[in-house]
Design brief:
mainly alpha
């Protein structure tokens, strides 16, 4: 997975602000200090990629840090958390304001209806 991750990060470096790739690298490397220092420099939609990195890496504690800095969420975050079947990550998203009635799948199913 590391080679795939490195290729993705390399491809993104030219496309996205440097803080995004720095945060994703810090999540991958378990570098909490860099995450805390860098997270405050991004807002809104720019925070989605690092949050997805935390979800995909099964690191809900880093997702929590990112959400503490910026509460912005998209349905892709909850969908990813559900696909990864990581209950702690889903709990973090709910704690930071995801409305359980909000549809997040292509067919528009709210979270409470998924079993």
């Amino acid at each position: 997975m590391s080679d795939k991750y490195d290729r993705i990060i390399s491809a993104l470096q030219d496309e996205l602000p440097s803080e995004i790739s720095l945060l994703c690298r810090a999540i991958h490397d378990n570098d909490e200090n860099t995450i805390r220092k860098t997270a405050s420099s991004l807002r809104g939609g720019l925070t989605i990629v690092p949050k997805e990195c935390a979800i995909d890496s099964d690191k809900p504690h880093f997702l929590r840090i990112l959400l503490e800095e910026d509460h912005y969420m998209s349905e892709s975050l909850m969908a990813r958390a559900c696909e990864n079947k990581n209950r702690e990550t889903v709990d973090v998203l709910l704690t930071y304001g995801w409305d359980i009635k909000t549809p997040f799948s292509p067919v528009g199913c709210p979270l409470w209806s998924v079993r």
